[in-house]
Design a protein that fits this description.
With 125 residues, the protein is an alpha/beta fold. The protein is built from five helices and five strands; from the N terminus they run βαβαβαβαβα. The protein has a single domain, classed as Response regulator (Rossmann fold), CATH 3.40.50.2300. Helix content is 40%, strand content 19%. Strand 4, helix 4 and strand 5 form a beta-alpha-beta unit. The radius of gyration is 13 Å and the shape is globular. The protein starts with a strand and ends in an 8-residue tail after the last helix.
């Protein structure tokens, strides 16, 4: 079973995404911020990581580097309220996609399917 690590500081978003992604057949593990995401990657290597950009303590962009140091091959999707934030920071190039948050997770699910179908290949973003 494909394991996805989702890091978001908002519990309602974590819970909603977990439910939706589990209905798609994924195993979902959760983190409350980038620091916890890094710790989870050290304990259990997921197949894909979804990081919110803005989180307390350690945001998604701050977590990308340490996660890449642990596992350079795991694909990362940035999940943000404003996708222009992805374009404004060079660290976003380490991600395979940037998806803007919405009540409908269709775009996130498409990015996940596309990414897992091309796992390990750069340049999807």
């Amino acid at each position: 079973m494909t394991t996805i690590l989702l890091a978001d500081d908002k519990k309602n978003i974590r819970d909603y995404c977990k439910q939706e992604l589990e209905e798609e057949g994924y195993r979902v593990i959760l983190a409350r911020d980038g620091r916890e995401a890094i710790e989870r990657v050290q304990m259990e290597l997921p197949d894909l990581i979804i990081l919110d950009l803005r989180m307390p303590r350690v945001g998604g962009l701050e977590a990308v580097g340490p996660i890449r140091a642990i596992s350079p091959e795991v694909p990362i999707i940035l999940f943000t309220a404003n996708d222009e934030d992805c374009m404004a920071d060079g660290r976003s190039r380490l991600a395979v996609a940037c998806v803007e948050k919405s009540e409908n997770l269709t775009e996130l699910k498409r990015a996940i399917a596309r990414t897992l179908g091309h796992a390990g290949r750069e340049g999807l973003f």
